[in-house]
């Protein structure tokens, strides 16, 4: 299933059923009074947050969602049956906007949440409702009211504990495949990841971390270069950011990469710079003895800035378990003194 994080759809609630014009027709009652029943209410279009979904791909082909209309009223004071509600499933993190005005109507984040996107029309009153002392035989009834209808823009922002941030080929996908059951495409060239991915890392004691991997960021991503806007929005809801740096390119290159990434984050939205940060110095399996000493120096540099730092290897798994523990503590908002630093 292809990843889709934006969609435009049309929703229409069911129209109300018309009221009935009817009179009693019974033996020995030649002039029976009005007994037309009311029409049934039209069905609503209801959005339900389904945690098993993580993409808007279901809206790739189906664009129109129309609920059932209410049934017409009947004689003998029988009311029409209400139309069935139409349930539309959306993933957590779906933002619903009015397509015409751009106004945000609902931010659907909590699994199980139900929200009525379009309300069904009321059923019309039957002629029995209009009987009075001065009007004994009303020969009219109300039509049902039309259901609400509108075009909606859907935008998905993934919800995760940890957001992976790094330049192309920094090893994010390798790390994600190491710690979760996700199976991203991995190769030794830039832009292997071309769509956001979610994975769940299992820690001990039934603890889990939901991790979002976005495609690598390049300079100018916050301006939309390299589809930066489409990717950066998926880490807005994360609790902690994991900056993955490729240490195999050297200390200077890793520092430059860190500065570039931080500039892109702050350029997109200030809130990203205020999130808890953890730095992972990746690919230490490729380092020699002298290069490992540089790794320690660089890690101490980040710790002095108040940023937890971990040398790791996404390929061999070295240092990964301790990194996950730090991410768990950061995501749960612990005492900073509890956080491990360089290992």
UniProtKB/TrEMBL annotation:
Enzyme class: hydrolase
UniProt subcellular location: Cytoplasm
Cofactor(s) listed in the protein's UniProt record: Mg(2+)
Domain Obg stretches: 1-159
GO cellular component assignments: cytoplasm
NCBIfam families, per the entry: Obg_CgtA (TIGR02729), PRK12297.1 (NF008955), PRK12299.1 (NF008956)
Quaternary structure note: Monomer.
Protein family (similarity comment): Belongs to the TRAFAC class OBG-HflX-like GTPase superfamily. OBG GTPase family.
Name this polypeptide is given: GTPase Obg
Lineage, uppermost ranks: Bacteria, Pseudomonadati, Thermodesulfobacteriota, Dissulfuribacteria, Dissulfuribacterales
Gene for this chain: obg
């Amino acid at each position: 299933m292809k990843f889709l994080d934006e969609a435009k759809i049309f929703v229409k609630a069911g129209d109300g059923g018309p009221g009935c014009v009817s009179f009693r027709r019974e033996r020995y009652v030649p002039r029976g009074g009005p007994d037309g029943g009311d029409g049934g209410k039209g069905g609503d279009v209801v959005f339900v947050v389904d945690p098993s979904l993580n993409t808007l791909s279901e809206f790739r082909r189906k664009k129109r969602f129309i609920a059932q209309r209410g049934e017409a009223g009947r004689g003998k004071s029988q009311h029409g049956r209400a139309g069935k509600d139409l349930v539309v499933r959306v993933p957590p993190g779906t933002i619903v906007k009015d397509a015409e005005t751009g106004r945000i109507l609902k931010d659907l984040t909590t699994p199980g949440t139900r929200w009525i996107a379009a309300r069904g029309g009321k059923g019309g009153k039957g002629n029995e409702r209009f009987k009075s002392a001065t009007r004994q035989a009303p020969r009219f009834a109300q039509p049902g009211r039309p259901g609400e209808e509108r075009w909606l823009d859907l935008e998905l922002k993934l919800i995760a504990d940890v957001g992976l941030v790094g330049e192309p080929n920094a090893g994010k996908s390798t790390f994600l495949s190491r710690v979760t059951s996700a199976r991203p495409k991995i190769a030794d060239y830039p832009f292997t990841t071309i769509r956001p991915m979610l994975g769940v890392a299992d820690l001990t004691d039934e603890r889990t971390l939901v991790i979002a991997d976005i495609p690598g960021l390049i300079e100018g991503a916050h301006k939309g270069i390299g589809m930066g806007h489409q990717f950066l929005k998926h880490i807005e809801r994360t609790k902690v950011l994991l900056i993955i740096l490729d240490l195999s390119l050297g200390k200077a290159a890793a520092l430059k990469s860190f500065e570039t990434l931080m500039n892109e984050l702050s350029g997109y939205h200030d809130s990203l710079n205020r999130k808890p940060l953890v730095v992972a110095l990746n690919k230490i399996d490729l380092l020699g003895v002298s290069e490992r000493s540089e790794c320690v120096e660089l890690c101490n540099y980040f710790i002095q800035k108040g940023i937890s730092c971990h040398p790791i290897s996404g390929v061999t798994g070295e240092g990964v378990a301790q990194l996950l523990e730090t991410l768990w503590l950061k995501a749960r908002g612990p005492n900073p003194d509890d956080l491990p630093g360089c290992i």
